[in-house]
Design a protein that fits this description.
single chain; four-stranded parallel beta sheet; alpha/beta; disordered C terminus
Length: about 170
């Protein structure tokens, strides 16, 4: 072991788990002896314009499938959601929500995700909209003007500040 305190995060999986190559990959990974090679399972949770408490985008849907798998194969493994968000602008109009929907959906998403015991961390896909992306998931516009979701998430996180959450944000303008 080079540094036992360093956590190894498995590359991100996404999509409905019963329909993705990512789920098959997990079975293959464990069958080939991959248990113990990583500390954290990484999931990218997107539901396009669907609210987080609807359909396959509901965290319980994919979580129950993965949780059953890990209960059997790797009971102490953490799950991190390293990408999630709702786009307020972009080229794929069918996946865009209003700023009010982004705000409501993100609060619901965080609440639902953190109610699941194995999920330890959740990260937004992007903090600031980037012009090279086809969808604008940020909670800040390119000009750094805060969207409604930014202000609401700040209050939400302040309310949860002493609830064993970690908040570390760093941004370097390149």
């Amino acid at each position: 072991q080079i540094s036992p305190k360093v956590k190894i995060v498995l590359g991100g999986n996404s999509g409905p788990p019963n329909k993705t190559a990512g789920y098959t990959f997990l079975y293959d990974l464990y069958d080939l002896g991959g248990k113990g090679l990583f500390d954290i399972f990484n999931y990218h949770h997107y539901s396009q314009n669907e609210a987080p408490d609807e359909g396959w985008s509901h965290p319980d849907y994919w979580y129950s499938i993965f949780n059953s798998f890990f209960k059997e194969k790797d009971p102490n493994l953490e799950i991190w959601v390293t990408e999630t968000g709702y786009a307020t602008d972009g080229k794929i109009v069918s996946e865009v929500v209003t700023p009010a929907q982004q705000t409501s959906n993100l609060i619901k998403m965080y609440t639902l995700l953190f109610s699941l015991e194995r999920i330890k961390k959740v990260f937004l896909y992007e903090l600031i909209d980037r012009p090279e992306n086809s969808l604008s998931y940020g909670v800040y516009q390119q000009n750094l003007k805060a969207k409604l979701a930014s202000r609401t998430l700040r209050i939400f996180l302040l309310l949860l500040k002493d609830k064993n959450f970690e908040r570390k944000i760093s941004y370097t303008n390149k």
